[in-house]
Amino acid sequence: MLRSTGKVALKMIDIGANLTDPVFTGLYRGKQKHESDLTAILARAKTFGVDKIIVTGGNLEESHKALQLAKEHEELLAVCEQGQKEGKVVAIGECGLDYDRLEFCDKATQLKYFEKQFQLAELTKLPLFLHNRNTGGDFYDMISKNRSRFSNGVVHSFTGEKEEMLKLVELGLYIGVNGCSLKTAENLECVKAIPLERLMIETDAPWCDIRATHAGHGHVKTSWQSKKAEKYAPDCLVKGRNEPCTLIQVLEIISAIRGEDQEAVAARVLENTENVFFKNE
Q1: Fewer CB near the terminus (10 Å): N or C of the chain?
Q2: Is 217 assigned to a binding site?
């Protein structure tokens, strides 16, 4: 159920959605709250201008699931090595460093295996889908050291400082922006400074939704009614579960804070994304 929007005639690509997450089958923390609604989610995304979705995999099992989803739904593209020949795999990832979650993996192990992942990029010639969280310069140093080993890449869900972003852009990387990139005034200043020719957009669904407490929320024009999972309704979003249709909100905020025409921003971001991930289409 739509609350407010203008007519959506834009074409966008969500460069990162975790559609293998159990919540998209109606399963929340081990409890089945409603039936699987992925088909409805994809239809809603299409209605609001999302032409393609890159499905991310955080591990081998998720990557296999992402590949299977991409085979079943033409609008989905998977991020994993297997299946490249089938035309469904468009990047290597998600790979990188995350120092906010060291309880899962220590720094030394992360650094060791991040460097090994560049071998996949060399082998497949695919771009990298990169993760960087609170790494104190280690991520930049690793990318700089190995930059000649991969063709292209995007640092997704960017929440770092403007200075770090500019250094990554100087290395020829793209910057992915989602709701988590639009939380604070400092975040907005960083997003304003991203060169348009280096910008991509994403939802990182089911996470990184844009909330009323976010600094960019006042620029949102499109919204939907949402209900708790226990009271699921097909024409409403599930409260607390982000989904690809909200990509339009990311675009609305970016365009507003940069003072740029929304259609022009959408067109350039689409061009960026197609050049990196879909240049052979």
Answers
A1: C
A2: no
